[in-house]
Amino acid sequence: MRSILLLACSAAGLFAADDVLTRVAAHADHFGAISRQIWETPELGFHENKSSSLLQQELKANGFAVKADVAGMPTAFTAEWGSGKPVIGIMGEFDALPGLSQKSEPMQAFVQEGAPGHGCGHNLLGSASALAVVAIKEEMQARGIKGTIRYYGTPAEEGGGGKIYMIHAGLMKDVDAMLEWHPGSTNSVNLGSMLANNGGLFRFYGVAAHAAAAPARGRSALDGVMIMLHAVEMLREHVPQETRIHYVITNGGSAANIVPAFAEVNIIARHPDALILNGIWDRIVKCAQAGALASETRMEFEQGTNYANRLPNDALAEVLSRAMHKAGGYQYSAEEQAFADTLRKSLQDVAPGPGPETVNTDKSTSVGMASSDAGDVSWNVPTGGFNAATFVPGVAAHTWQAAACAGNSIGRKGMLVAARTLSLAAIDLFQNPAEVKAARESFEKRLAGRKWTTRIAPDSKPRLNYAVR
Amino acid sequence: MRSILLLACSAAGLFAADDVLTRVAAHADHFGAISRQIWETPELGFHENKSSSLLQQELKANGFAVKADVAGMPTAFTAEWGSGKPVIGIMGEFDALPGLSQKSEPMQAFVQEGAPGHGCGHNLLGSASALAVVAIKEEMQARGIKGTIRYYGTPAEEGGGGKIYMIHAGLMKDVDAMLEWHPGSTNSVNLGSMLANNGGLFRFYGVAAHAAAAPARGRSALDGVMIMLHAVEMLREHVPQETRIHYVITNGGSAANIVPAFAEVNIIARHPDALILNGIWDRIVKCAQAGALASETRMEFEQGTNYANRLPNDALAEVLSRAMHKAGGYQYSAEEQAFADTLRKSLQDVAPGPGPETVNTDKSTSVGMASSDAGDVSWNVPTGGFNAATFVPGVAAHTWQAAACAGNSIGRKGMLVAARTLSLAAIDLFQNPAEVKAARESFEKRLAGRKWTTRIAPDSKPRLNYAVR
Amino acid sequence: MRSILLLACSAAGLFAADDVLTRVAAHADHFGAISRQIWETPELGFHENKSSSLLQQELKANGFAVKADVAGMPTAFTAEWGSGKPVIGIMGEFDALPGLSQKSEPMQAFVQEGAPGHGCGHNLLGSASALAVVAIKEEMQARGIKGTIRYYGTPAEEGGGGKIYMIHAGLMKDVDAMLEWHPGSTNSVNLGSMLANNGGLFRFYGVAAHAAAAPARGRSALDGVMIMLHAVEMLREHVPQETRIHYVITNGGSAANIVPAFAEVNIIARHPDALILNGIWDRIVKCAQAGALASETRMEFEQGTNYANRLPNDALAEVLSRAMHKAGGYQYSAEEQAFADTLRKSLQDVAPGPGPETVNTDKSTSVGMASSDAGDVSWNVPTGGFNAATFVPGVAAHTWQAAACAGNSIGRKGMLVAARTLSLAAIDLFQNPAEVKAARESFEKRLAGRKWTTRIAPDSKPRLNYAVR
Amino acid sequence: MRSILLLACSAAGLFAADDVLTRVAAHADHFGAISRQIWETPELGFHENKSSSLLQQELKANGFAVKADVAGMPTAFTAEWGSGKPVIGIMGEFDALPGLSQKSEPMQAFVQEGAPGHGCGHNLLGSASALAVVAIKEEMQARGIKGTIRYYGTPAEEGGGGKIYMIHAGLMKDVDAMLEWHPGSTNSVNLGSMLANNGGLFRFYGVAAHAAAAPARGRSALDGVMIMLHAVEMLREHVPQETRIHYVITNGGSAANIVPAFAEVNIIARHPDALILNGIWDRIVKCAQAGALASETRMEFEQGTNYANRLPNDALAEVLSRAMHKAGGYQYSAEEQAFADTLRKSLQDVAPGPGPETVNTDKSTSVGMASSDAGDVSWNVPTGGFNAATFVPGVAAHTWQAAACAGNSIGRKGMLVAARTLSLAAIDLFQNPAEVKAARESFEKRLAGRKWTTRIAPDSKPRLNYAVR
To answer: What is the secondary structure of C368-433 as a DSSP string?
Structure first.
């Protein structure tokens, strides 16, 4: 852990006055090790039993009151310390991705082929947020700061939408400001959004018949799929150009000589605005209904992931920008630089972007193409977010390169940038009620009288096995 | 008229015993001239004013009681003589086809380019049937035969469905046996059927928008058409193989830079059985509804032609077969042969089939690809039909070659085969109640408990301008 | 084996004069037991190791010269006795079908779920043909009949096309008449044909891209499939109505958020005439090429099953009809009747047809919807075929009901009808050179100067693992 | 002409020092009257005989050397004065739009229904540019300014692409800076672009056949169109989101009972970058080829309009901005205000935007959805353009409202803003070689080494009758 000590030293000069950073540094090695432990036992969405337990146990050990198994999800939990207003929340994720098993090496190398891996760096995400709340709590305790700091252990971000069920369960209602971060290839705060998305399985049920002897007796479920998809293709011209619609045919019939009695398509739509997306989705459903109507088949829909876009929060972006400038970036050690150089060779046509020593806090409003249930949170409570440089510049999430970085010291250094930024921002908010108020105002302004809606029904059960089917 | 005299002579030897044939022969030249007159003033469906008047006038002059302007159609009429049972009906048509203007010459030559012409020989059809009823009436009168002979002047067979409105008006209810014939290239009686057909215009109404500036605001009517037609194409696999479905896009949008607010498709479906066709048509309608549903456009349907298949009548086929054998065929004169030889050169890849001297009365059950409202009559009353050789062997209906034959002596000789056959068969039926009863039984057997249905609503008005739009 | 003894007795009275039938009876139990043994170890196409060995061993033991592992197929063999002309061939099949595991009981009951089963009765097919050649050989030997009797052990009829490779290898060139039979639900000889078929996998290769972030960089393999299939649907209107085209999408992309880099469709086309089918197939290939062209993907085709229709042989149908009338049908025992009655309850809306005591030898020319590589044989040498009632009336091939019958005494009684018919017909042919000549003439007449073609290249290797992928 | 005098007075105070503006004012009434004369005789593209003659005659009378009938277009011309460098070009258009006949009244009122009208204000465009070059020439003469001022009389901007043929003919090669303007609803200079577009007719030729009797003999041209368009729809996902593709089916078959032997689609594609559009168009052509391939029809393409996007010129935008600020806007008279108020009532849901007194010269870079052959000019020589407020705020081009404004004093006041701006800018350029050099540099920078391409072949003849078919 030489590199982390080195970092702590170099950081010391910059913000010695901030005790909370000293506290982060004190726990850095320990939570770095926890992140590595989670990385070594990658668990898919809603099955993060070890990862969740480990984090709960650490927070309990640090004096947090933990509520486990909340909102119908065995791996969801909250952990809080303090009482009363304001309530500052920090979110942590810890689920892995299927098929991304990777050693912490700069070339593709499975730990176990086909097994899950932390290609989105959620091992760092959950651990840095936990490290942050521990440091914040110590600082609050030390200085007698009033209020509640609360950690949200949010499972199954990768498609399961754990946060949505926590919203439905009322677990976020009293939050004044929610902070979140995500592993990335730069240290950056901006006002960018993400795409809202919605998806699921349209299943068509027809009537089988021998395709040579009696095709007229059959009603082809595949015909239903194809008519639907033809209509969807024609829809593309008549939706806003920022829309994305994409699909795969997950079942296209069983045998060529039988009229298919079953067929299935998995379709996802996205748009930068969740409410506009809702209208587009209604039209996709009409295409599916049309497919069933014309082919005389029956159509059923199984709701999949539905995430809102992220409503940026201008006030919290300011708070986080200041915090990140204070938190600072980091330098690669010679060893890390060699790792990064080797890894970069596997990236084609990718501009590297700024390095980990840089902090980027422009207020640009680009729309990222990713989607997250953090978006849904941002429609419910004032939410501020940022990225920390846990991946080598140019590395995209959901790749083996990301998984490799998430398991080594580069990931752990990036995770410290996140923990420092979160800690500084939270303490800032606790001490400045005006900022908390501004965050609420920014929230209301972006909401502009609109209301969050989701296609995940309030009384629906989490699809606990969505990731392992 | 040399050829017709010749024919009368040759015929005399064959069936001198049959007075009714002598009567046919006596009127042959006159009604031949009438057929030519109608041929010279070709009139489209529901606009056969001169043709209908001329026939009415002739029948009136021969003592028939004429009811003009029946069933909401100015050119429809009935003309009857006698009273009481049995009631024998004979149908006559007289409408022309658009664009088939043709001189009575063996090479393509317009009388007037683009004008209508008698490419289906209905000038002969209406005239031969009129000639027949006149001869029958004279024979009935002479012999004191009881019963009613009735001529049906049925307009707009080419798509207008005049007979259907006459059925709806109850004008055929009391008929014991209906006889009909059609110009063709052979003299033949068989048990063949025809295809039932149904068709019309599906119109889609969307929302126009500038296709470059605001395509998302538009709802494309052409999308509606294309989704419908894609679904129709998929339907083909799942209907009986004898089905035919064909269409043209009659309006595919007005300008490429505007999202089409209107689009239209003209579609026809056919099947050898009208009731099965009904079920298929319902599915086509679903395809159209699906097109509207998926494209968020509105769909309207304008009913077009809907003709039932012909239910063969086994007993009447026997009666007609005997009659046609007695009636006999005819020979070409040298001049006619030369005409036929020249005409044949314009026919490619067409087997000529038997000549006009032949009479074919097998009981084969081939399904012709044509459709006629005579089919609807056959579902309502016992109906027997046949073809007479008015066209040179190998000539198909709806061609300039057919129009050319319909205007010359070949057509008129063929028309006499028809008139003789009809006369003999009707007299046969009047004199043999058992045959009338057998016709009824054959009818019931083929009907097999089923009921005629039509998509032309009983209270709908004939589309009097369908042919001139 | 009570029922079989019973049968042998009852048969004895009918055709005692025919020694060859006595010989069949003598081996009946033994080959019945062999059929049961094959039924108990169902093996998929090209993997019929036990089944093929067992039959080879029996034929060897009966004095036949066996050539194993012929034409590149380990389970293909020939077994012959005698020498010189004429050469009479009898074909035997022995492959099972996937997923049709079934006990010999009149209700659905797996031996092992998902395992193969003899749902097409090939255990009987191969065994009856073997029984026949043994009886024929004994009869030839006894009477000093000249010529060659040859058994063709033809593997993988269910899609693998073993016979085609045997034709390519020249193994059938010298055959004067080929006899074959197939298990069915009636005893019948007719001039019916079967559909020629052709099929295979069209694979499309595109360029993957993130479907939300960079869809314009992707080239969708699924688009290739869908454009191809849309074109195929439009083709339906413009091929002869007897054509069948059916498909399933065997790979429709891997994940909805990735532009599919791979997609695959399995498509089969059929028509009563192999040469017309060839032309239709060329047009399907054009549709696939169009899909690749328009989507900028690459298309590859893997040839699957390609079977010709069966050319009926009028002379051999006569020979077989006479033989089958002599061979006679059979009666169910009380036990078998009970089995049949129970089984019938599982068949819905199926007319049972005539029972096993009946022999049907009309010369009707219906086109069966099945396809077989026996069709290819019939384009190469005079081939006569028939069905024997091994299944309860109304039972279709490729069902659990067929598999159940194939394993019990009903199947074995039906198999004896086949063995008797084959034996009588072969002896007839050996003794009547005129009939052999007539078979050749019938063959030439049906061929009408045309030549067999196949899409299975002469130098291609059998797809030995086609059934186990 | 009261209002124009009023304007001249009010303007006098603002820029008395600028003699060129005095010169513009001196000719204002005369060229206003010319614009009205052209408005009263609206002529379609390439048929602007009177309009072109009138402008040529005026320029000749003012001492310009006119070359008529250039580049194969009878109504194209150039008119120049002076000699040597720099060469400053000013473009004028004068073609009308079909169907936009409109009186100069604030409610829809045809002069002649269905006749053309100046719905794009080109009567003003050509006249203001002519007025400008006359004033510039007088100023050059008065001050002894060196260089060449050249008017480009460019016909058929509305789809005919007159400028492209002038480029091909080399008529613009020596231009140092080209100035152009367009009637609009605001006075504005910006760096906005326009969409490049390309379009034309894809014609499919198949084989007709009776759709009921012999559909298998037909090859449907409409199938070709539909397969092509299905492929085009699938293309949408895989082109940049700014792309537009839109089409109408201009011929979808002639009669529903005949397999269509001919079908036609008119398709247009657009993109902000002409070179990217080229690549997209190649893919559309592949879709058309795929349609022909799969349907076994023949495809032909007739090139239609192909316009490049406009390359903004930063230096000329500066020059024009300064000039327009000097030129100033104008006020409505009471009468004009009343006209404007009435007209506005016919506009629904349209934000009016700033009034004619305002001058907008931000450097925003919005992409307009219109397309023009001025875009092609901008890829060949440094080209600066702007809008003048000839239409009531909120009025869009190609509407009756625009045609109404183009014929009255509002249009003529707006035209003077244009003439003043052009005059000031041209004199500025003549006197400042550095600005001419900067214009060239801006041009090279935007070109970035790329080269103009067009699908209008250099040796192709203008489609002189494109507008009157």
So the answer is: ES---THHHHHTTS-EEEEEEE-S-TTPPSSSHHHHHHHTSHHHHHHHHHHHHHHHHHHHHHHH-H
Categorize the per-residue pLDDT at D12 as very low, low, confident or very high, splitting at 50, 70 and 90. very low
Sign of torsion over alpha carbons D30, D36, D40, D41: positive
SS3 D204: strand
Give the one of C229, C246, C265 whose C-beta lies nearest to A215's C-beta.
C246
Q: Give the separation between CA D322 and CA D359, rounded to whole angstroms.
A: 10
The count of other CB atoms within 10 Å of the CB of residue B450 is: 12
**A340-386 tens-digit pLDDT:** 999 999 987 777 778 999 999 877 767 677 889 999 999 999 999 99
Per-residue pLDDT of D112-123, as tens digits, reads: 998 999 999 999
Cα–Cα distance between B394 and C30 in angstroms, integer?
64
Mean pLDDT of chain B: 93
The stretches in chain C having pLDDT less than 50 are 1-17
Nearest-Cα distance to chain C for D266, in Å, is 18
The sign of the dihedral angle between the CA atoms of B291, B296, B297, B301 is positive
Taking the alpha carbons at both ends of chain B, their separation in whole angstroms is 38
Q: Which residues pair with A204 in a beta bridge?
A: A263, A299
Tokens 């003048």 found at? D388
CA-to-CA dists, residue D304 to B230, D200, D250, D279, D467, angstroms: 28, 4, 14, 17, 11
CA distance D69 to D49: 10
> What's the pLDDT at D192?
80
Task: Find the DSSP H helices in D345-408.
Answer: 374-378, 400-406
Distance CA D146, CA D82 (A): 7
- DSSP label of D217: G
Under 8 Å between Cβ of D79 and D56: yes
The residue-averaged pLDDT of A172-188 equals 96
Of D90, D306, D351, D321, the C-alpha closest to D191 is D321
Residues of A in contact with B293 (CB under 8 A): 286, 289-290, 293
Q: State chain C's mean pLDDT as an integer.
A: 93
The interface pTM score, or ipTM, of the predicted complex is 0.89
The string of DSSP letters for C22-60 reads HHHHHHHHHHHHHHHHHHHS---TT--HHHHHHHHHHHH
Strands laid side by side in the C87-92 sheet: C65-68, C77-83, C147-153, C87-92, C177-184, C383-389, C187-188, C359-360
Is the Cβ–Cβ distance between C312 and C193 less than 8 Å? yes
Report the distance separating Cα B68 and Cα B63, nearest Å: 15
Residue C286: what are its φ and ψ, rounded to 5°? -60, -40
Q: Using CB atoms and an 8 Å cut-off, which of residues 214-243 of chain D contact chain B?
A: 215, 222, 226, 229-230
Alpha helices in D89-204 (DSSP H): 122-143, 162-168
Bridge partners, C197 (sequence order): C270, C307
- 8 Å CB contact between C260 and C207: no
Tokens of C217: 């960089």
Number of CB atoms found within 10 A of residue A295's CB: 30
Q: Please answer yes or no on whether C238 and D216 come within 8 Å at the CB atom.
A: yes
- CA dihedral in degrees (D180, D185, D190, D191; nearest 10)? -70
Which residues from chain D sit within 8 angstroms of residue B371, using beta carbons?
212
CA angle D362/D364/D368 to nearest 5° reads 120
Query: Nearest Cα to B249, choosing from C54, A121, D248?
Result: D248
| Type of residue numbered D397 | A
Predicted confidence (pLDDT) per residue in A231-276, tens digit: 999 999 999 999 999 999 999 998 999 999 999 999 999 999 999 9
Tell me the pTM. 0.92
Residues of C in contact with B234 (CB under 8 A): 233
Element (H, E) at B268: strand B262-271
